[in-house]
Amino acid sequence: MLDPKLLRADIETVRANLARRGVELDVARYTALEEGRKSLQVTTDELRNRRNQGSKNIGRAKAAGEDIQPLLDEIASLGDQLKQAEQTLGENHAALDDLLFGLPNLLADDVPDGADENDNVEIRRWGEPRTFDFEPKQHDDLGLLDFEAAARISGARFTVLRGAVARLQRALVQFMLNLHVDEHGYEEVYVPFLVKAPALFGTGQLPKFREDLFEVSGDQEFFLIPTAEVPATNLVREQIVEADRLPIRMVAHTPCFRSEAGSYGRDTRGMIRQHQFEKVELVHVCSPENSWDELEVLVGRAETVLQRLELPYRAVTLCSGDIGAAAARTYDLEVWLPGQGKYREISSCSNCTDYQARRMQARWRNPATGKPELVHTLNGSGLAAGRCLVAVLENYQQADGSVAVPEALKPWMGGIDVIPASAG
To answer: In a designed cystine with 339, which of 138, 265, 276, 363 is the match (CB 3.0 to 4.6 A)?
Structure first.
Protein backbone atom coordinates (compact mmCIF):
# COMPACT_ATOMS: atom_id res chain seq x y z
CA MET A 1 0.00 0.00 0.00
CA LEU A 2 1.27 3.46 -0.87
CA ASP A 3 1.80 6.12 1.77
CA PRO A 4 -1.42 8.18 1.97
CA LYS A 5 0.65 11.16 3.15
CA LEU A 6 2.66 11.04 -0.08
CA LEU A 7 -0.51 10.94 -2.14
CA ARG A 8 -1.88 13.95 -0.32
CA ALA A 9 1.39 15.88 -0.54
CA ASP A 10 2.59 15.07 -4.08
CA ILE A 11 -0.03 13.22 -6.07
CA GLU A 12 1.45 14.27 -9.41
CA THR A 13 4.74 12.48 -8.68
CA VAL A 14 2.79 9.36 -7.71
CA ARG A 15 0.69 9.60 -10.87
CA ALA A 16 3.79 9.89 -13.08
CA ASN A 17 5.50 6.94 -11.37
CA LEU A 18 2.47 4.68 -11.74
CA ALA A 19 2.11 5.72 -15.38
CA ARG A 20 5.50 4.08 -16.02
CA ARG A 21 3.79 0.76 -15.21
CA GLY A 22 0.90 1.59 -17.50
CA VAL A 23 -1.32 2.20 -14.45
CA GLU A 24 -3.55 5.27 -14.61
CA LEU A 25 -4.24 6.95 -11.30
CA ASP A 26 -7.66 8.63 -11.35
CA VAL A 27 -6.47 11.89 -9.82
CA ALA A 28 -9.88 13.56 -10.04
CA ARG A 29 -11.61 10.71 -8.23
CA TYR A 30 -8.90 10.52 -5.58
CA THR A 31 -8.98 14.29 -5.02
CA ALA A 32 -12.77 14.28 -4.73
CA LEU A 33 -12.71 11.41 -2.24
CA GLU A 34 -9.92 12.99 -0.20
CA GLU A 35 -11.65 16.38 -0.08
CA GLY A 36 -14.87 14.62 0.84
CA ARG A 37 -13.08 12.73 3.60
CA LYS A 38 -11.73 15.92 5.14
CA SER A 39 -15.09 17.64 4.98
CA LEU A 40 -16.96 14.65 6.37
CA GLN A 41 -14.41 14.26 9.17
CA VAL A 42 -14.90 17.90 10.20
CA THR A 43 -18.69 17.50 10.14
CA THR A 44 -18.54 14.26 12.13
CA ASP A 45 -16.22 15.75 14.74
CA GLU A 46 -18.42 18.83 15.12
CA LEU A 47 -21.56 16.74 15.56
CA ARG A 48 -19.82 14.51 18.10
CA ASN A 49 -18.61 17.54 20.07
CA ARG A 50 -22.07 19.13 20.03
CA ARG A 51 -23.66 15.90 21.23
CA ASN A 52 -21.10 15.57 24.03
CA GLN A 53 -21.65 19.17 25.08
CA GLY A 54 -25.40 18.63 24.98
CA SER A 55 -25.06 15.66 27.32
CA LYS A 56 -23.19 17.86 29.77
CA ASN A 57 -25.93 20.53 29.48
CA ILE A 58 -28.54 17.93 30.38
CA GLY A 59 -26.64 17.16 33.59
CA ARG A 60 -26.49 20.84 34.51
CA ALA A 61 -30.19 21.37 33.69
CA LYS A 62 -31.15 18.39 35.84
CA ALA A 63 -29.14 19.74 38.74
CA ALA A 64 -30.84 23.13 38.35
CA GLY A 65 -34.34 21.58 38.17
CA GLU A 66 -34.91 22.82 34.64
CA ASP A 67 -36.99 21.17 31.91
CA ILE A 68 -34.59 18.89 30.05
CA GLN A 69 -36.96 17.62 27.33
CA PRO A 70 -35.82 20.19 24.73
CA LEU A 71 -32.23 19.17 25.40
CA LEU A 72 -33.13 15.48 25.07
CA ASP A 73 -34.82 16.17 21.75
CA GLU A 74 -31.74 18.05 20.55
CA ILE A 75 -29.44 15.20 21.62
CA ALA A 76 -31.61 12.68 19.81
CA SER A 77 -31.51 14.80 16.64
CA LEU A 78 -27.74 15.20 16.91
CA GLY A 79 -27.40 11.45 17.44
CA ASP A 80 -29.31 10.75 14.21
CA GLN A 81 -27.22 13.27 12.30
CA LEU A 82 -24.01 11.83 13.72
CA LYS A 83 -25.02 8.29 12.82
CA GLN A 84 -25.70 9.36 9.24
CA ALA A 85 -22.44 11.34 9.04
CA GLU A 86 -20.43 8.38 10.39
CA GLN A 87 -22.04 6.08 7.84
CA THR A 88 -21.22 8.45 5.00
CA LEU A 89 -17.67 8.87 6.28
CA GLY A 90 -17.31 5.08 6.46
CA GLU A 91 -18.48 4.75 2.86
CA ASN A 92 -15.95 7.40 1.85
CA HIS A 93 -13.15 5.55 3.67
CA ALA A 94 -14.16 2.31 1.95
CA ALA A 95 -14.05 3.97 -1.47
CA LEU A 96 -10.65 5.48 -0.70
CA ASP A 97 -9.33 2.13 0.52
CA ASP A 98 -10.65 0.43 -2.60
CA LEU A 99 -8.71 2.89 -4.74
CA LEU A 100 -5.52 2.78 -2.66
CA PHE A 101 -5.43 -0.99 -2.18
CA GLY A 102 -5.60 -1.46 -5.95
CA LEU A 103 -2.49 0.63 -6.62
CA PRO A 104 0.92 -1.05 -7.09
CA ASN A 105 4.14 0.01 -5.40
CA LEU A 106 6.18 2.94 -6.66
CA LEU A 107 9.06 1.95 -8.93
CA ALA A 108 12.65 2.70 -8.04
CA ASP A 109 13.94 5.55 -10.20
CA ASP A 110 16.44 3.37 -12.08
CA VAL A 111 13.97 0.66 -13.12
CA PRO A 112 14.12 0.63 -16.94
CA ASP A 113 11.00 1.66 -18.80
CA GLY A 114 9.34 -0.93 -21.01
CA ALA A 115 6.10 -2.64 -21.94
CA ASP A 116 6.77 -6.32 -21.21
CA GLU A 117 9.41 -9.03 -20.73
CA ASN A 118 10.96 -8.18 -24.10
CA ASP A 119 12.13 -4.88 -22.60
CA ASN A 120 13.88 -6.39 -19.56
CA VAL A 121 17.57 -5.52 -19.35
CA GLU A 122 20.26 -8.19 -19.04
CA ILE A 123 22.92 -7.26 -16.47
CA ARG A 124 25.18 -10.34 -16.42
CA ARG A 125 25.59 -13.95 -17.45
CA TRP A 126 27.25 -16.88 -15.73
CA GLY A 127 28.39 -20.14 -17.27
CA GLU A 128 28.58 -21.32 -20.87
CA PRO A 129 25.71 -23.35 -22.31
CA ARG A 130 26.80 -26.92 -22.90
CA THR A 131 27.55 -28.03 -26.45
CA PHE A 132 25.76 -31.31 -27.19
CA ASP A 133 26.84 -33.86 -29.80
CA PHE A 134 23.18 -34.84 -30.15
CA GLU A 135 19.90 -32.94 -30.34
CA PRO A 136 18.94 -32.13 -26.73
CA LYS A 137 15.37 -32.85 -25.76
CA GLN A 138 12.96 -30.79 -23.74
CA HIS A 139 12.43 -32.19 -20.24
CA ASP A 140 8.94 -33.51 -21.01
CA ASP A 141 10.24 -35.49 -23.99
CA LEU A 142 12.74 -37.47 -21.91
CA GLY A 143 10.02 -39.82 -20.71
CA LEU A 144 10.99 -39.44 -17.05
CA LEU A 145 7.90 -37.52 -15.91
CA ASP A 146 4.40 -39.00 -15.63
CA PHE A 147 1.96 -36.38 -16.90
CA GLU A 148 -0.62 -38.98 -17.91
CA ALA A 149 -1.07 -40.36 -14.38
CA ALA A 150 -1.29 -36.83 -12.98
CA ALA A 151 -3.97 -35.94 -15.52
CA ARG A 152 -6.05 -38.95 -14.50
CA ILE A 153 -5.83 -37.87 -10.87
CA SER A 154 -6.02 -34.09 -11.07
CA GLY A 155 -6.20 -32.86 -14.67
CA ALA A 156 -3.84 -30.62 -16.60
CA ARG A 157 -0.83 -28.78 -15.14
CA PHE A 158 0.12 -31.50 -12.66
CA THR A 159 2.98 -34.01 -12.70
CA VAL A 160 3.78 -37.30 -10.97
CA LEU A 161 7.46 -37.90 -10.22
CA ARG A 162 8.64 -41.45 -9.63
CA GLY A 163 11.71 -43.19 -8.29
CA ALA A 164 15.03 -41.49 -8.90
CA VAL A 165 13.41 -38.39 -10.41
CA ALA A 166 11.30 -37.87 -7.29
CA ARG A 167 14.46 -38.33 -5.25
CA LEU A 168 16.27 -35.83 -7.47
CA GLN A 169 13.69 -33.15 -6.66
CA ARG A 170 13.98 -33.98 -2.94
CA ALA A 171 17.76 -33.73 -3.27
CA LEU A 172 17.41 -30.29 -4.84
CA VAL A 173 15.30 -29.10 -1.92
CA GLN A 174 17.69 -30.55 0.67
CA PHE A 175 20.69 -29.06 -1.09
CA MET A 176 19.11 -25.61 -1.24
CA LEU A 177 17.91 -25.62 2.37
CA ASN A 178 21.27 -26.76 3.71
CA LEU A 179 23.12 -24.20 1.60
CA HIS A 180 20.97 -21.30 2.79
CA VAL A 181 20.91 -22.39 6.44
CA ASP A 182 24.45 -23.71 6.94
CA GLU A 183 26.42 -21.40 4.65
CA HIS A 184 24.25 -18.32 4.20
CA GLY A 185 22.99 -18.13 7.78
CA TYR A 186 19.24 -18.09 7.13
CA GLU A 187 16.72 -19.12 9.75
CA GLU A 188 14.68 -22.07 8.47
CA VAL A 189 10.96 -21.68 9.12
CA TYR A 190 8.17 -24.18 8.64
CA VAL A 191 4.98 -22.29 7.86
CA PRO A 192 1.29 -23.08 7.24
CA PHE A 193 0.24 -23.97 3.71
CA LEU A 194 -3.24 -22.56 4.36
CA VAL A 195 -3.67 -18.88 5.19
CA LYS A 196 -6.54 -16.50 5.83
CA ALA A 197 -7.34 -13.49 3.68
CA PRO A 198 -5.55 -10.88 5.86
CA ALA A 199 -2.21 -12.63 5.26
CA LEU A 200 -2.71 -12.44 1.48
CA PHE A 201 -3.85 -8.86 1.81
CA GLY A 202 -0.66 -8.08 3.72
CA THR A 203 1.63 -9.27 0.94
CA GLY A 204 -0.53 -7.82 -1.83
CA GLN A 205 -2.18 -10.86 -3.44
CA LEU A 206 -5.57 -9.64 -2.24
CA PRO A 207 -7.78 -8.04 -3.27
CA LYS A 208 -6.42 -7.55 -6.80
CA PHE A 209 -5.16 -11.05 -7.64
CA ARG A 210 -7.84 -13.23 -6.06
CA GLU A 211 -8.45 -15.15 -9.30
CA ASP A 212 -4.86 -16.46 -9.18
CA LEU A 213 -5.49 -18.18 -5.84
CA PHE A 214 -7.07 -21.47 -4.82
CA GLU A 215 -9.71 -20.80 -2.18
CA VAL A 216 -10.70 -23.70 0.09
CA SER A 217 -14.43 -24.02 0.70
CA GLY A 218 -15.72 -24.78 4.16
CA ASP A 219 -16.76 -23.19 7.43
CA GLN A 220 -13.66 -20.97 7.48
CA GLU A 221 -12.10 -18.85 4.76
CA PHE A 222 -8.75 -20.36 3.81
CA PHE A 223 -6.51 -20.06 0.76
CA LEU A 224 -3.73 -22.38 -0.38
CA ILE A 225 -0.50 -20.40 -0.40
CA PRO A 226 0.81 -19.29 -3.82
CA THR A 227 4.30 -18.98 -2.31
CA ALA A 228 5.97 -19.21 1.11
CA GLU A 229 6.48 -15.45 0.81
CA VAL A 230 2.94 -15.03 2.18
CA PRO A 231 3.18 -16.85 5.54
CA ALA A 232 6.89 -16.09 6.05
CA THR A 233 6.56 -12.34 5.49
CA ASN A 234 3.47 -12.25 7.70
CA LEU A 235 5.55 -13.52 10.62
CA VAL A 236 6.33 -9.84 11.30
CA ARG A 237 2.72 -8.76 10.82
CA GLU A 238 1.55 -6.32 13.53
CA GLN A 239 4.95 -6.66 15.23
CA ILE A 240 7.52 -4.09 16.34
CA VAL A 241 10.96 -5.61 15.71
CA GLU A 242 13.90 -4.35 17.74
CA ALA A 243 16.78 -2.97 15.68
CA ASP A 244 19.27 -5.58 16.86
CA ARG A 245 17.17 -8.34 15.24
CA LEU A 246 17.52 -6.83 11.77
CA PRO A 247 18.07 -7.95 9.14
CA ILE A 248 15.84 -11.00 9.51
CA ARG A 249 16.60 -13.59 6.82
CA MET A 250 14.31 -16.60 6.57
CA VAL A 251 14.16 -19.62 4.28
CA ALA A 252 11.10 -21.85 3.87
CA HIS A 253 10.37 -24.89 1.75
CA THR A 254 6.70 -25.29 0.84
CA PRO A 255 4.42 -26.48 -1.89
CA CYS A 256 2.90 -23.61 -3.86
CA PHE A 257 -0.53 -23.52 -5.47
CA ARG A 258 -1.53 -21.21 -8.32
CA SER A 259 -4.55 -21.20 -10.57
CA GLU A 260 -2.54 -19.65 -13.42
CA ALA A 261 -5.70 -17.77 -14.37
CA GLY A 262 -3.78 -15.22 -16.41
CA SER A 263 -1.62 -17.71 -18.31
CA TYR A 264 -4.18 -19.36 -20.58
CA GLY A 265 -2.39 -21.04 -23.46
CA ARG A 266 1.10 -20.35 -22.05
CA ASP A 267 3.50 -23.18 -21.18
CA THR A 268 0.78 -25.80 -21.34
CA ARG A 269 3.31 -28.61 -21.79
CA GLY A 270 5.82 -29.79 -19.24
CA MET A 271 6.57 -28.55 -15.74
CA ILE A 272 7.22 -24.87 -16.38
CA ARG A 273 3.81 -23.60 -15.27
CA GLN A 274 2.03 -25.91 -12.82
CA HIS A 275 -0.92 -25.60 -10.44
CA GLN A 276 1.22 -27.27 -7.75
CA PHE A 277 4.97 -27.01 -7.37
CA GLU A 278 7.63 -26.77 -4.67
CA LYS A 279 9.82 -23.83 -3.89
CA VAL A 280 12.53 -22.81 -1.48
CA GLU A 281 11.71 -19.20 -0.68
CA LEU A 282 13.96 -16.52 0.79
CA VAL A 283 12.44 -13.63 2.77
CA HIS A 284 14.35 -10.65 4.19
CA VAL A 285 13.06 -8.04 6.65
CA CYS A 286 15.29 -5.02 7.22
CA SER A 287 15.51 -1.33 7.99
CA PRO A 288 14.77 1.02 5.07
CA GLU A 289 18.35 2.26 4.79
CA ASN A 290 19.64 -1.27 4.12
CA SER A 291 17.01 -2.66 1.77
CA TRP A 292 18.84 -2.06 -1.52
CA ASP A 293 21.95 -3.77 -0.15
CA GLU A 294 19.73 -6.62 1.06
CA LEU A 295 18.36 -7.04 -2.45
CA GLU A 296 21.89 -7.60 -3.76
CA VAL A 297 22.51 -10.14 -0.97
CA LEU A 298 19.24 -11.91 -1.81
CA VAL A 299 19.90 -12.28 -5.51
CA GLY A 300 23.47 -13.38 -4.77
CA ARG A 301 22.20 -16.21 -2.57
CA ALA A 302 19.90 -17.44 -5.35
CA GLU A 303 22.73 -17.23 -7.89
CA THR A 304 24.93 -19.39 -5.65
CA VAL A 305 22.44 -22.27 -6.04
CA LEU A 306 22.72 -22.15 -9.83
CA GLN A 307 26.49 -21.84 -9.71
CA ARG A 308 26.86 -24.86 -7.40
CA LEU A 309 24.64 -26.85 -9.76
CA GLU A 310 26.72 -25.58 -12.71
CA LEU A 311 23.64 -24.36 -14.54
CA PRO A 312 24.25 -21.47 -16.96
CA TYR A 313 22.01 -18.48 -16.29
CA ARG A 314 21.60 -14.79 -16.82
CA ALA A 315 20.35 -12.03 -14.50
CA VAL A 316 17.97 -9.39 -15.80
CA THR A 317 16.38 -6.28 -14.34
CA LEU A 318 12.65 -6.26 -14.94
CA CYS A 319 11.29 -3.26 -16.79
CA SER A 320 8.42 -1.09 -15.58
CA GLY A 321 5.79 -3.04 -17.53
CA ASP A 322 6.85 -6.50 -16.32
CA ILE A 323 7.52 -5.97 -12.63
CA GLY A 324 5.15 -7.34 -9.96
CA ALA A 325 2.68 -5.04 -8.23
CA ALA A 326 4.32 -5.16 -4.79
CA ALA A 327 7.90 -4.69 -6.01
CA ALA A 328 9.88 -1.49 -6.37
CA ARG A 329 12.66 -3.35 -8.21
CA THR A 330 13.02 -6.98 -9.30
CA TYR A 331 15.91 -9.05 -10.60
CA ASP A 332 15.01 -12.24 -12.45
CA LEU A 333 17.41 -15.14 -12.80
CA GLU A 334 16.85 -17.05 -16.02
CA VAL A 335 18.39 -20.51 -16.40
CA TRP A 336 19.48 -21.90 -19.76
CA LEU A 337 17.25 -24.70 -21.06
CA PRO A 338 18.97 -26.41 -24.00
CA GLY A 339 15.83 -28.31 -25.00
CA GLN A 340 14.04 -25.01 -25.54
CA GLY A 341 17.15 -23.20 -26.67
CA LYS A 342 16.54 -20.19 -24.44
CA TYR A 343 16.75 -18.78 -20.94
CA ARG A 344 13.70 -19.20 -18.71
CA GLU A 345 12.89 -17.59 -15.36
CA ILE A 346 13.82 -19.66 -12.32
CA SER A 347 13.90 -16.97 -9.61
CA SER A 348 12.48 -13.48 -9.04
CA CYS A 349 14.13 -11.40 -6.30
CA SER A 350 12.24 -8.28 -5.28
CA ASN A 351 12.51 -5.35 -2.92
CA CYS A 352 8.99 -4.41 -1.85
CA THR A 353 10.21 -1.44 0.24
CA ASP A 354 7.46 -0.49 2.75
CA TYR A 355 4.54 -1.50 0.49
CA GLN A 356 3.80 -4.80 2.25
CA ALA A 357 4.84 -3.52 5.68
CA ARG A 358 2.25 -0.74 5.58
CA ARG A 359 -0.48 -3.27 4.80
CA MET A 360 0.75 -5.60 7.56
CA GLN A 361 1.68 -2.86 10.05
CA ALA A 362 5.11 -4.47 10.35
CA ARG A 363 7.50 -2.10 12.08
CA TRP A 364 10.91 -1.78 13.70
CA ARG A 365 11.99 0.51 16.51
CA ASN A 366 14.44 3.05 15.11
CA PRO A 367 17.08 3.59 17.83
CA ALA A 368 17.74 7.11 16.50
CA THR A 369 14.18 8.20 17.30
CA GLY A 370 12.96 5.50 19.67
CA LYS A 371 9.79 5.34 17.58
CA PRO A 372 8.29 2.51 15.52
CA GLU A 373 8.75 2.85 11.77
CA LEU A 374 7.84 0.61 8.85
CA VAL A 375 10.31 -2.12 7.90
CA HIS A 376 11.20 -3.02 4.33
CA THR A 377 10.47 -6.53 3.05
CA LEU A 378 12.16 -8.52 0.29
CA ASN A 379 11.56 -11.96 -1.18
CA GLY A 380 12.95 -14.28 -3.81
CA SER A 381 13.03 -17.88 -4.94
CA GLY A 382 16.09 -19.67 -3.81
CA LEU A 383 15.04 -21.62 -5.99
CA ALA A 384 11.83 -22.98 -7.50
CA ALA A 385 12.42 -26.74 -7.17
CA GLY A 386 10.27 -27.76 -10.13
CA ARG A 387 11.94 -25.42 -12.56
CA CYS A 388 15.31 -26.35 -11.13
CA LEU A 389 14.49 -30.00 -11.80
CA VAL A 390 13.60 -29.07 -15.37
CA ALA A 391 16.95 -27.32 -15.76
CA VAL A 392 18.90 -30.28 -14.38
CA LEU A 393 17.08 -32.78 -16.60
CA GLU A 394 17.73 -30.73 -19.73
CA ASN A 395 21.30 -29.64 -19.00
CA TYR A 396 22.51 -33.01 -17.68
CA GLN A 397 20.78 -35.25 -20.24
CA GLN A 398 22.90 -37.75 -22.15
CA ALA A 399 22.67 -39.18 -25.64
CA ASP A 400 20.98 -42.41 -24.48
CA GLY A 401 18.20 -40.48 -22.66
CA SER A 402 19.68 -40.92 -19.21
CA VAL A 403 20.45 -37.95 -16.93
CA ALA A 404 23.67 -37.46 -14.99
CA VAL A 405 23.30 -36.32 -11.39
CA PRO A 406 25.07 -33.01 -10.65
CA GLU A 407 27.97 -33.33 -8.20
CA ALA A 408 26.29 -30.96 -5.72
CA LEU A 409 23.28 -33.29 -5.40
CA LYS A 410 25.05 -36.63 -5.04
CA PRO A 411 25.17 -36.54 -1.20
CA TRP A 412 21.35 -36.82 -1.21
CA MET A 413 20.97 -39.38 -4.01
CA GLY A 414 21.93 -42.55 -2.15
CA GLY A 415 24.69 -43.53 -4.55
CA ILE A 416 22.70 -42.82 -7.73
CA ASP A 417 25.03 -41.08 -10.21
CA VAL A 418 22.87 -41.50 -13.31
CA ILE A 419 19.11 -41.63 -13.72
CA PRO A 420 18.45 -44.32 -16.33
CA ALA A 421 16.59 -43.50 -19.52
CA SER A 422 12.89 -44.20 -19.67
CA ALA A 423 12.01 -47.65 -20.97
CA GLY A 424 9.35 -45.98 -23.08
So the answer is: 138
